[in-house]
Specification:
about 220 residues, alpha+beta, Immunoglobulin-like, Ferric Hydroxamate Uptake Protein, Chain A, domain 1, 2 domains, five-stranded mixed beta sheet
C-alpha cells in the first residue's frame, strides 16, 4: 500500500511540473496599432491561431492576447492593407504603425522593420486532395505535389521552390501554413501529415499578407 501511495504521488508531481512548464511557455502579447502621427486606430479586428482568441483594438489602439506561445501567430485585418499574419516568436509587444493609407510597418523579433502593404492578387493553384486520391495513389504530401502544381519544383532533398516568387532570402523555401498555423519547411510538414487527412492544398506565388516570410510563396494546407 505504501508503494502505491508513493507511486501515485510521483505521477501527481510529474503532472504538475509538466503543466507548470507548459504554462511558462505561454505569455500575454500586446498589440498596438497607430497612425503615422501616433494616434491610436481603434476597432481593428485581431485573432490568434492557437487558442482562437479574437477581439478589436480599444480606444488606445491596443489589444492584449493571453496565453500565446512562440510558435503562435496572429491575424490582423488592417484598414486599407487587408488581412496579414504576424508570427510572434520572441515578441511580448508589437506596435504596428500606418505609413500610408495602404501600408504599415512594425519591428520584427530581429528588430528589423517589416513592411505591410496591400496584398496583390496572388496567382494560385488549389488541389482537391480527396478527388486526386480517388484517381491515383500518393504516398505522401510531397508525392502528391510533385508534378501536380505548375511552377512548384521539389528537389531530391525535398526542398521546394515556387517559380515566380520574389524571394528576399538566401533560402527559396516557401512558407507552409496548416489550418492557419505557420509551420516549418515542406519537408518537415510532409513528415507530420498523413496525405489522407488533407482536404485542400493551395499554392500561392506571392504571399504579401504574410509579410517578408511570404516572399518565397506560400503553401496553404487545410485538413479534414
Amino acid at each position: 500500500m505504501k508503494y502505491i501511495y508513493f507511486f501515485l504521488m510521483f505521477i501527481f508531481i510529474g503532472a504538475v511540473s509538466t503543466a507548470q512548464e507548459t504554462d511558462a511557455t505561454k505569455r500575454p502579447v500586446s498589440v498596438k496599432i497607430i497612425d503615422k502621427k501616433g494616434r491610436p486606430i481603434k476597432n481593428v479586428v485581431l485573432s490568434s491561431h492557437s487558442n482562437t482568441q479574437k477581439g478589436k483594438t480599444d480606444r488606445a489602439g491596443q489589444f492584449i492576447f493571453l496565453y500565446v506561445s512562440d510558435d503562435d501567430s496572429i491575424t490582423v485585418k488592417l484598414p486599407g492593407a487587408g488581412q496579414i499574419i504576424i508570427p510572434i516568436a520572441g515578441m511580448d509587444s508589437i506596435e504596428i504603425r500606418r505609413s500610408t493609407t495602404r501600408s504599415y510597418y512594425y519591428l520584427g523579433n530581429d528588430s528589423q522593420s517589416v513592411m505591410i502593404e496591400k496584398a496583390k492578387t496572388s496567382p494560385s493553384t488549389t488541389l482537391d486532395v480527396p478527388e486526386l486520391l480517388k484517381k491515383q495513389y500518393f504516398s505522401s504530401l510531397i508525392d502528391l505535389l510533385r508534378g501536380n502544381v505548375p511552377g512548384l519544383s521539389i528537389g531530391y532533398d525535398n526542398s521546394a521552390n515556387i517559380r515566380g516568387a520574389s524571394s528576399f532570402h538566401m533560402s527559396t523555401e516557401p512558407l507552409v501554413v496548416v489550418n492557419g498555423m505557420v509551420q516549418g519547411t515542406l519537408s518537415e510538414v510532409n513528415n507530420l501529415l498523413n496525405v489522407n487527412d488533407i482536404k485542400t492544398v493551395e499554392v500561392l506565388k506571392h504571399g504579401a499578407e504574410y509579410g517578408v516570410r511570404g516572399s518565397n510563396g506560400v503553401i496553404l494546407i487545410k485538413t479534414k
